[in-house]
Amino acid sequence: MPAQQKKVVFCIAGVLSFACALSIAGAIGTQLWIKGRILCKTGALLVNATGQELEKFIGEIQYGLFYGERVRQCGLGGRPFQFSFFPDLFKIIPASIHVSVIVFCLVFLVFALIGTGFFMYNAFGKPYETLHGPLGLYLWSFISFSCGCLIMILFSSEVKIHHLSEKIANYKEGGFIFKTHREQFANSFWIILVCSLVHFLNILLIRLAGFEFPFSKSKDSETANGAVDLMY
Length: 232
Fold this sequence. Notes:
- By secondary structure, the protein is of the alpha+beta class.
- The chain has helices spanning 3-29, 41-46, 85-89, 95-124, 134-161, 164-169, 187-208, 214-231; strands spanning 34-40, 58-63, 67-73, 78-84, 178-185.
- 31% of the residues are buried.
């Protein structure tokens, strides 16, 4: 690929990485990771509520990585209140998974910024065949993509397997029992997915610019060396 086209490809990849970094930073700070509806099971059973009556016992919940808000509905109108994971809910949630999600989000952000810098350096500077060059671009993009995948896997397991929404809803509720009526991943979660796909796209852009994948390059060199050995 001509040098000018390589510059354009690396600029596009750099801009995409920077946009991802901004999006990840925004996603970390919002409470739009999960939106759901919580059923007050105790209240519904007491009056044997069905159909339209059941709506009086279904409240709303939404939260992110650090805080969230909830509307408690037990037949007497909604009562909104906010909650925080640190320190309020730290003892009842799967803390190791939750902290891991936050850590990987920060790592994702850092490597997206590093990738931005290296793409721009390769576009306008004079890179050489080390971590400053194509090898580094592949490495930073792969690490970013991997972090995004780990974030989605860990957060999904925390919500679906460990029933995070129910644990939050039942926190300090005494004799009332709340169950998840419906929940779905919200904007911030899908931002992480999109950013992961963008970094995978960046890997393809590096290949499009004419740089071999690191492992395929090593295999080619091994084949060439083997051919030379046979000649002698």
